[in-house]
Amino acid sequence: MSIKELIGKTTKLTVARKAQFGYFLTDGDEDILLHSNDANRELVEGDEVEVFIYVDSEGRPAASMTIPEVAVGRYAWVKVTSVKPEIGVFLNIGLRKDILLGKDDLPSYKSVWPKEGDLLYVTLRVNRNGLLYAKLASDQVIQSIASKAARKDFNKNVHGYIYRTAKVGSWIYTIEGFKGFIHESQRKQEPRLGEKVEGRIIDVKEDGTINVSLLGRKQETQETDAIRIYDYLMSRNGAMPYSDKSMPEDIQERFGLSKAAFKRALGKLMKEGKVYQEGFWTYVKKD
């Protein structure tokens, strides 16, 4: 197998000679440079070393004694280091040179592209020009590493990373190893690819996959919604032209809440004696 065919893979080579900037390694037919910055110890001629073959900034095959977890045919979770809207995102696989995940492999909407620090489950691929790129794991690959959830896991809190995103929903791989789906109705906003999210299991399917909600449990959501309404009231000197008689679309536009959620939160504030209603208006109770 030629050196070019080993790009993105691990192999064992022999030190042929020391050079000004590192070492030349050989497989008996071809030589390749191991830069001194890619060597983790001093080497001498004849040493056999395990190296990872990558492509340097000049587009040439190069060797590294740092062996990434990810390789051609091997997947791993890697961190996003930077985002370049015109070409894609760069990933740190442990080498001196970050690897590009091209924009063609990312969602069409840049609003859900990963940000620096997000995690993606990827493998490596070599294009027809011999350049090394990252490739996202498919749904089938995630399925192959996933653990099956059981009925006892229903309603448990989980957190994990978004590995696929679409208008209809988002797909998550949880820390527990569960493969899950988040329907668009179970999220306030669409998470980014690679974003870490926390939710709860709202269904366990027969195949062991799960449905997840990113919306808070009712009592937690009610508390948050009540604070939002009360803060809005205070910003208007204790009076607002909204009540449980308001139109659902008006409530949605102002507070981003359904009418049912608005009424629950308003009811909580009234029960606590913080507000009262008169006609179509709501007021803060004065001490």
UniProtKB/TrEMBL annotation:
<comment type="similarity">
    <text>Belongs to the CvfB family.</text>
</comment>
<protein>
    <recommendedName>
        <fullName>S1 motif domain-containing protein</fullName>
    </recommendedName>
</protein>
<dbReference type="Pfam" id="PF21191">
    <property type="entry name" value="CvfB_1st"/>
</dbReference>
<dbReference type="Pfam" id="PF21543">
    <property type="entry name" value="CvfB_2nd"/>
</dbReference>
<dbReference type="InterPro" id="IPR039566">
    <property type="entry name" value="CvfB_S1_st"/>
</dbReference>
<dbReference type="InterPro" id="IPR048588">
    <property type="entry name" value="CvfB_S1_2nd"/>
</dbReference>
<dbReference type="InterPro" id="IPR014464">
    <property type="entry name" value="CvfB_fam"/>
</dbReference>
<dbReference type="InterPro" id="IPR048587">
    <property type="entry name" value="CvfB_S1_3rd"/>
</dbReference>
<dbReference type="InterPro" id="IPR012340">
    <property type="entry name" value="NA-bd_OB-fold"/>
</dbReference>
<dbReference type="InterPro" id="IPR036388">
    <property type="entry name" value="WH-like_DNA-bd_sf"/>
</dbReference>
<feature type="domain" description="S1 motif">
    <location>
        <begin position="155"/>
        <end position="215"/>
    </location>
</feature>
<dbReference type="InterPro" id="IPR003029">
    <property type="entry name" value="S1_domain"/>
</dbReference>
<dbReference type="Pfam" id="PF13509">
    <property type="entry name" value="S1_2"/>
</dbReference>
<dbReference type="InterPro" id="IPR040764">
    <property type="entry name" value="CvfB_WH"/>
</dbReference>
<dbReference type="GO" id="GO:0003676">
    <property type="term" value="F:nucleic acid binding"/>
</dbReference>
<dbReference type="Pfam" id="PF17783">
    <property type="entry name" value="WHD_CvfB"/>
</dbReference>
